[in-house]
């Protein structure tokens, strides 16, 4: 229950939070300076607590005319800025290009995914603690969308979002809602200087998301045949054992987890060549170098995991404690 309350409080606006805090301070002042009893103080606090739960429940029941599904907190936040209040954004806070997806649509599959992430990826303790609960809440939100409300699923040409699209369409297989897919990679992007190609939706500004939405909100919904194709592709993914996926030739490809190891060592060698004498470099510097030159959307957490594996395999020397990338440095071991 404490995690539920924390989530409700985090979703309050600044004004709502300040108002709630002011009420608490006024009650404490009344308790100290008037005949306001402790029993009334406790009764008032309980009433505020009940009203907060009721407010959160009513907010969830607010009618929406359109629902958008996005894969990442950053793009979801950007899209919310641009949308009218009667359009809702549902977001997954997960990285679908990494970790097991074997039977992820089942409780057992979700449990084994959480276990793998906990054992291999340096994630916030609170995130891993509430991972299953929040994942299931997001699925429940999707399955509780009213039947006549159109659904927009946002994606781009990367393994993370394309895997997630297939997972969500499989989850929606028994629902009759019109589903439209907005793929930002199919839109033209340019600045005054050059064309550019964002790897993921999170790289697109809220202004450009609005432009894309206006250009695509009336596209044809997916046909039954296309929906069935996506759902079938999910079922194929859900029997794979690999923990890494890339986007290649317009398809999701499952690859071994050491797929990028040679590239990581190559970028480390490149950074060493810029030094007068090869010396320790912050692991965050190396990971940033890898991510910055990678044409895949994998996420820095997975690359950091592979750096730690390369340390264990004797490829890198380490200085510091690898509890998070900012706490340690690495350098390539000299070849004997």
From TrEMBL:
InterPro entries tied to this protein: DUF1835, DUF3658
Name by which UniProt lists this protein: DUF1835 domain-containing protein
Ranges of residues in domain DUF1835: 67-184
Occurrences of domain DUF3658 (ranges): 218-328
Pfam families registered for this protein in UniProt: DUF1835 (PF08874), DUF3658 (PF12395)
Domain of life: Bacteria
């Amino acid at each position: 229950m404490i995690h539920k309350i924390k989530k409700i409080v985090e979703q309050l606006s600044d004004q709502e939070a300040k108002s709630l805090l002011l009420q608490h301070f006024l009650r404490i002042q009344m308790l100290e300076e008037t005949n306001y009893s402790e029993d009334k103080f406790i009764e008032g606090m309980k009433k505020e607590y009940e009203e907060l739960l009721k407010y959160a429940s009513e907010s969830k029941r607010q009618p929406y005319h359109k629902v958008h599904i996005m894969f990442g907190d950053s793009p979801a936040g950007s899209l919310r800025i641009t949308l009218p209040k009667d359009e809702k954004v549902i977001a997954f806070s997960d990285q679908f290009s990494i970790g097991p997806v074997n039977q992820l649509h089942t409780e057992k599959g979700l449990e084994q995914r959480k276990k793998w992430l906990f054992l291999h990826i340096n994630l916030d303790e609170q995130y891993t603690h509430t991972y299953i609960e929040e994942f299931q809440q997001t699925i429940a939100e999707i399955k509780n969308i009213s039947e006549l409300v159109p659904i927009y699923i946002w994606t781009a040409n990367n393994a993370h979002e394309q895997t997630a699209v297939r997972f969500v369409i499989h989850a929606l297989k028994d629902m009759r809602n019109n589903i439209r897919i907005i793929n930002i990679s199919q839109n033209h992007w340019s600045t005054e200087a050059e064309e550019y190609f964002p790897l993921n939706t999170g790289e697109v500004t809220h202004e450009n998301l609005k432009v894309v939405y206006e250009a695509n909100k009336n596209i044809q919904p997916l046909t039954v045949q296309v929906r069935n194709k996506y759902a079938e592709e999910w079922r194929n993914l859900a029997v794979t054992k690999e923990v890494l996926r890339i986007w290649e030739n317009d398809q999701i490809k499952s690859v071994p987890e050491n797929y990028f190891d040679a590239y990581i060592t190559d970028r480390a060698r490149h950074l060493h060549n810029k030094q007068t004498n090869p010396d320790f470099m912050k692991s965050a510097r190396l990971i940033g170098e890898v991510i910055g030159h990678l044409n895949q959307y994998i996420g820095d957490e997975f690359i950091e995991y592979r750096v730690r594996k390369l340390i264990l395999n004797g490829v890198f020397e380490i200085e510091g404690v690898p509890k998070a990338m900012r706490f340690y440095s690495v350098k390539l071991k000299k070849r004997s």
